[in-house]
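Continuing the series of single-chain predictions for the mutant panel. This is the parent chain; the variants come on the following pages.
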Amino acid sequence: MNNYFHLLLLQVLVSFALHGQQKYPVLTNVISFEELQKKSFERKVEWTNPDGSKEKLTIKEMAIPFKEKLKALTTEFVHNVYRLDSIWLKPEMIVFHAMGDGDLKTSLEVSSFLNDEMPDSWGNLSKAGELPNGAHFIIDRDGTVICLAPPVLKDGSPSFDPDNHQWYIKRHQDGNPVAIGIENVTRQGNYTDLTEAQVESNAKLARWLIWFERGKIKFIASHHQFNDDKNYDRFLKAFYLINYKRQFRTHGRKDIGNKALSEILDRVKKAGIPIRPFF
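Parent structure:
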């Protein structure tokens, strides 16, 4: 009898262990995390805020290759979802996100950011299009600002000239055609635990982006605010957009949360920048 209960207990423990492990599908890499790191380099930018304060920011450029397949999938996604015929972003807002996957390496590897297409097994996301997830920036736990999709010239070469650049549309779920997406590395399963260094880096990056875009960016938001359908309808109407695949859009996002968003907003506005929350 004791052996029976020991065996049963072992089966239960194994079951819990397997259930607790996060399972991710095998994805096809555009580039590995190790290769991306080897190609990374630091870029320094400077600007002056409306209140006259001067700032500098170090950006770690880790540009994920944007090859022909990804360009084709972006074209297809933007057309099928929004009936738009350009893969170029019209930056009018910043949307903050959180990964909830642990460290930077894991966050990039399990998110489809480094891959050439969205896995079929990802349910509604793949039904809305094969374009993998993406963002323009991701901020690590220590506040390091990493650029995954830099501004470019029309030939695709990076350009940090505020008067001569464009951004590719990236699939960060909501706000795609008009929003620069900023991700944050957070602890496994916890989206709102931004470190102080991350809050400051998000605010500093936002200040630079608003300057860089010559004031075209008017709003900031957190991805979780798009969960409510009324909010989402208001967003679409404000930017003259229609989502033709909205039945497949994500709900229940947590992302950085209201507290962190308010802190970031306050730090941006203190520099005399007329930014406001969209929701």
